[in-house]
Amino acid sequence: MVRLYTKGLHIGYGERLIVKNLNVEIPDRKITTIIGANGSGKSTLLKAITRIVPQQSGTVVLDGKDILKENTKILAQKMAILPQTPESASGLTVGELVSYGRFPYQKGLGRLTKKDIEVIDWALEVTGTSDFKYRSVDSLSGGQRQRGWIAMALAQETEIIFLDEPTTYLDMAHQLEVLELLQKLNIEQERTIVMVLHDLNQAARFADYMIALKDGQIVKAGDCEEVMTHDVLRKVFQIDAHIGRDPRTNKPMCITYNLLKGDNQNEKMAIPLSSIGAYR
Amino acid sequence: MIHPALRRKQRILFSLFLGMIVVTIIIGMGLGYSSLSYDRLIPTLFGHGTFQEEFVLFSIRLPRMVVTLLAGMALALSGAILQGITRNDLADPGIIGINAGAGVAIAVFFLFFPIETGSFTYLLPICAFFGALLTAGLIYLFSYHRNTGLDPVRLVLVGIGFSMALSGAMIVLISSAEREKVDFIAKWLTGNIWGADWPFIGALLPWLAILIPITLYKANRLNLLSLGEPVAIGVGVSVERERITLLLIAVALAAAAVSVTGSISFIGLIAPHIAKALVGPRNQLFIPLAILIGGWFLLIADTIGHNLIEPNGISAGIMVAFIGAPYFVYLLLKK
Fold first, then answer.
1. Whole-angstrom distance, CA of residue B287 vs CA of residue B271
2. Chains A–B, number of C-beta pairs less than 8 Å apart
3. A-chain residues within 8 Å CB-CB of B147?
4. Chain A residues touching residue B231 (CB < 8 angstroms)
5. Which of residues 244-273 of B touch A (CB under 8 A)?
6. For residue range A127-147, what is the model confidence (pLDDT) as tens digits?
7. From A54, which residue of chain B is nearest by alpha-carbon distance?
8. ipTM
9. Range list of H helices, B92-238
10. A66 to chain B nearest CA, in Å?
11. Staple A82 to which of A31, A99, A163, B109, CB 3.0 to 4.6 Å?
């Protein structure tokens, strides 16, 4: 039995349902990546699992408890979230930003204890941001800033970490740097990592478990061999993908792709085409 | 992880503003229509003054200065909180309808209820207080959404709408009223400190004594709220509950202030601004400064305005606007 799963999750903004009747299990101590086209509900799913967006019905269960009934501070000791594009932390130093990650453990006036300071220093160190401790977050480059935010999530000392597109706005080298850091945390400290990724090849390379979403429903969930297939990608992205192998990691990768022509296109266009026919 | 130099700077500035307030009060004690020379201040303070000196100092000047100081502090703190929870640097108690709500309540009470001079002065602030509270409650109700909870942007928009509507209502109310009554209401609207007596201090002080520590206690949460909802929720802040509590604190502070001073704007906007410009956005550092700046600002405005033109002077609210508006323009130009 996994620690974290959803049961019949419906999520929507107003009338529009984005995620419909979703049952998903997040494997413990693994890296899970969620993939899907724009608007497929992957960010929304992440937000619902982390109680940022309330679901309309269904439950998210962590350690046998509905997360909406759990004390939010206790939850924050179990799971941390790095939102897609965090607000600018104007004027704060990196050290301060990271210290905010200790909030779930603080009582009263929120003075930092010795333990807090140790954890903060550790988080700065593993993310390679120790040098920026007293530097303003605004003065950092995109990659450094992102690492600072990750350090804040780490300072929360949670077993589960959620990240919504942690590599956005980063260059190739920095993207890999962030992903390798997360992998290291997963391997060395057995943290469960769940992230939404745009880049399919990165998602396949780093994931133990992949979830492919389309229109708020799971098309396929499993290891990268099961998900990175021509068939699944056709359903999820409407692309005709050529799947090969990464010569270095031997993981499946999408070498090239075309937009689908033929069958699926017709299926997609079925209604407009017939209505055009009617006008004729 | 705050730089020690910044903490030191904040402490120095804090003492500086505290000093300025004391100096302003001392200067203010000797200013006014009746003469009380500066060399008589200390003997009078220690109870060796003549009856006239004591009367002028303890019954006229001191209470007025203490009231303005406290009201300015309350407005500044209220503004700082509102800017924090709405994440909008232009938020101020005026926009959540406090001033307009209190104004309408005063107008209605003043025009339609028979007045007995004895109880009148004390009923009016109570009336203003509940008017402000009611308005804020309505604004909250209209900006609350069942699914998403309290949306700060909506709160600001609904608040501005309400202020406009209530200001309109007030004009309708007073346009048909008698001249003397209109005079009083108009004076209230310009922020004329009228509750300058010890009982009003008693009405104002408890709010500050309770709500300043609570707000400082919540400074960390305010810091987190300023990083956006997802981050705040992620580290375990009960965003919805904190917002409502802080909003209530802000409303209570502003309502308490406005009910004894009359409608005063700009303080809640400018004091937090100056404080943030001096020590940065950390709530635990800038809020104490903002409180002192707000109090000092209103004190100066009233002391100058009060003594500028004999015998009644210029309303503190107008003086604040005189000083505040150019600063506001400067802020806009700088951005």
1. 9
2. 84
3. 13-14, 54
4. 81, 83, 86-87, 100
5. none
6. 889 999 999 998 888 888 888
7. B147
8. 0.87
9. 98-112, 117-143, 152-175, 179-189, 198-217, 219-225, 229-234
10. 16
11. A163
Domain-by-domain residue ranges, chain A? 4-279
The residue ranking higher by pLDDT, B329 or A42, is: A42
Burial environment of residue B21 by CB neighbours within 10 A (0 to 12, 13 to 18, 19 or more):
buried
From the list A197, A175, A149, A178, the residue with the least C-alpha distance to A42 is A197
- Burial of A248 by CB count in 10 Å (0-12 exposed, 13-18 middle, 19+ buried)? exposed
Nearest to A93 among B1, B224, B238 (CB): B1
Q: Is A242 on the interface with B (CB under 8 A)?
A: no
Higher-confidence residue of A170 and A202: namely A202
Give me the residues of A, 139-158, that contact B with CB < 8 A.
Answer: 153, 156
Q: Which residues contact B264 (CB under 8 A, 6 or more apart)?
A: B71, B75, B99, B191, B257, B258, B298, B316, B317, B320
| CATH 3.40.50.300 describes domain A4-279 | yes
Number of domains in chain B: 1
CB-nearest partner of A133 from B1, B227, B230: B1
Contacts of A118 in chain B (CB under 8 A): none
DSSP at B113: S
Q: What is the CATH classification number for the domain harbouring B191? A: 1.10.3470.10
pLDDT of A279 > 80? The answer is no
Mean pLDDT of A259-278: 52
Give the mean model confidence (pLDDT) for residues B62-72. 93
Q: Which domain holds residue B315?
A: 4-334
Taking the C-alpha atoms of residue B118 and residue A191, their distance in angstroms, rounded to an integer, is: 71
